[in-house]
Amino acid sequence: MPIVTADQPLTSARANELIDQLTRAYPAITARQFGATAFGRPLRVLTIGTGPRKVLYTAAHHANEWLTGYILLKFAEDLAAAIQNRGRVYGVSAENIAAAATIYLVPLVDPDGIDLVTGGIQPGSLEYAIAQGLGDNYPTIPFPDGWKANLLGVDLNLQYPAGWQQARQTKFSQGYTRPGPRDYVGRAPLTQLESRALAELTRQIDPALVLAYHSQGKEIYWQFGDYEVPGAQALGEDFARTSGYTLANVPEESAYAGYKDWFIQDFRRPGYTIEVGQGVNPLPLSQFDEIYRDNLGILVTAATDLPR
User: Fold this and answer.
1) Quick one: which H or E segment has residue 34?
2) Per residue in 220-233, is it b (16+ CB within 10 Å) or e — as a string?
């Protein structure tokens, strides 16, 4: 029986339980904590493989996009099981993937916010009351389903020093001028523990490539400003081909201060935001199997740098 099954909303407690089970069941997987949230929830990264190509996959930067966390957890299990059984993933030998790459996976960038959306934080608790108070500033946004931010009301994917002032100007013009469920950029870049920890982890790993999983829209974003990264468009076209997603330009209102923007700017290497599924966040669990099938080729291709 598989350990990772997307059969219930993904709370941080469930994610941590799954990570612990995976590391016990599969020697190929290791896990460590690389930070913590303002409310004490751990930020964890899994590692698989020993190859020279380092890649970093991240998910659930936004609270109501928690379904993306399951993508990385299931991929970790599928790859580790295939390594153990000398099998294949997406037609590629798992042993060859592990020999080619060291894959780092961060399933939950925003565990506090995720727990608010998925029921890990109960009504009546102090944490719930804090969020509800911030939500009252934006009464038209559904609570808690419309929550994207961390529990301090800061959007973690608007926290990076890559056009942050432009993002601030855009979001303030849209009315997101104080902490709340979404689109508040914070007082300055990297003020939040989660974004700061992920930036530091990225610097430590120094990866060849990053993936940032979001939902929804079935689109892949690969650009930031006028930066030209050799090979980034071609690899993005491979991703689009394997997934059926569209390689697209980032909408202007979302074009700054994101994690992949900062990575492209500071590392001058390929970074991708992948918007999975279709509909209104949070996406239903019923979409997961299709989403996972669509993205398996991306996950393997990004690790091996082999077009499929």
Assistant:
1) strand 29-36
2) bbbbbeeeebeebe
Parallel, antiparallel or unpaired: strands 271-276 and 219-221: antiparallel
The pair of three-digit structure tokens given for residue 95, joined into one six-digit string: 């042993």
- pLDDT tens track for 3-56: 999 999 999 999 999 999 999 999 999 999 999 999 999 999 999 999 999 999
The dihedral sign for the CA sequence 274, 184, 258, 19: negative
Show the beta-strand stretches assigned E in 64-174. Answer: 88-89, 92-93, 101-106
What is the C-alpha to C-alpha distance for residues 82 and 235, in angstroms, rounded to an integer?
A: 25
Taking a C-beta distance cutoff of 8 angstroms, is the pair 304, 97 a contact? Answer: yes
φ and ψ at residue 136, rounded to 5 degrees: -65, -20
pTM of the model: 0.97
Catalytic residues: 256, 275
CA 129, distance to chain mean position in Å, is 26
d(CA 116, CA 235): 36
Whole-Å CA distances, 83 to 26, 111, 251: 9, 29, 39
